[in-house]
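Sequence dictates fold. Next comes a concrete instance:
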Amino acid sequence: MGQAAGRLLAAGRIDGVEADELQREVDGGRRAIIAAVPGRARDTSRAAAAEAASLENARAAVSSTPGGSGAGRTDPLVGDLRRAGLLALLVLHYVARAPSYGNQLIDRIEQLTGGALTVNPNTMYPLLRSLEERGMVAGEWEHPERRSRRFYRITPEGEAERARLAGELEPRMDRIARSIRAIRREVLT
């Protein structure tokens, strides 16, 4: 314990705080100087510390959820497929059919999956930029003279990636489909 904390403890009582309370604050890793703050400010800072601890506990609980956080992350069926590249596969599939822009892709994916896989723009647009940087898609502005919708089309590299992802995801999708059929047979018939 530092000299200042020792002097504070030797006084026995500072601003209505007993020596054992000071000791707990020092032992708890806090600086003893907190005890010298007038009562009202000290109580406020203790409440703020308790609130911050509660917030940190909540954040820790969310981050410890299996699969992380975000749409589809905690769903054991869709989350596994999503982490394996389902979203990239769907984007490559749709841009191979016709040039498409981000919000259009979001709507198509939600419609195809009946809402089981939801994608927000904060996921879609970084994915499209990443695919473009990797040469999987090529993007062109609808009106090149001003910022407008950016339409993406697949490239030969994207076709190869699409085939690779489809091959990798097919066994997983088959396993999930079998599981759902078995569950349906067991509990619904």
